[in-house]
Amino acid sequence: MPTTTTDDLAAKAAELAGGADRQSAVGALVAECGGDRAALEAARDLTARKVRARIDDWEATAALTLLNLALANLPRHDPLDWRERWARHRKP
Q: With the CA atoms of 12, 14, 17 and 22 taken in that order, what torsion angle do they form, in degrees rounded to the nearest 10?
């Protein structure tokens, strides 16, 4: 698993946001964080704070969009999801 900090991941998203191919940029972000959802969420939160502080920062807005796309492509595990609870307590 790659060891990247939140700042590094946010900077990488800002760097990749200027490119034309979003899908390859999303793939690069997911590979950079090693599929770690928490790392992407932390980078998204950091970038969102930048956007809130300066609303006309278009680079940060594009990076935030890219981070949200990367998060949308990662699987989400919710232990309180009804399907998991139902499967655990279902009689065979």
A: 40
